[in-house]
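Researcher: Structure prediction, please.
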Amino acid sequence: MNRSPWPSDRPKTGEILVEIAYGRQVTVKYEMNRALSPEDFVDVLERSGLAERRPTGDLTTMRGMVENTNLIVTAWDGDLLVGVARSMTDFHYACYLSDLAVDRAFQKQSIGRVLLRLTTDKLGPQCKLILVSAPAANDYYSALGFEKNERTWVLPRGKQIDS
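Model: Predicted structure follows.
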């Protein structure tokens, strides 16, 4: 099995040439655990469409999200953040992928796939990658090999655990 994060037809370096709108080609650079400002994070969430599911108007929460994650893989077009995979993990048993966002102008170029592969490459051989998918992304994740799990539970904020 090819364990390289790069699709087989792409160069095996930290940069991938992609074509975006109007035939414009750019080089996307991938980085591991690069410091990320909450403003850049909010910006890529907005450009990806994921912002509607995140508290982007609460900069304190957004800052906490980027400062307290322990595995973050980013994709950059120069100084512009075009993709992010943000996770919390113990690196051995479970990794929760909190966010996978790719700027709409850069989608369909394997950027999300590379972000996920770079994330999984940092995990131990027994570590599962777990996520809660936006409904529109279900087909995307199943096509990548994710298996649907009917046993996932969420305790919404404001709800208390009964004694």
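Model: The longest helix spans residues 38-48.
Researcher: Thanks, that helps.
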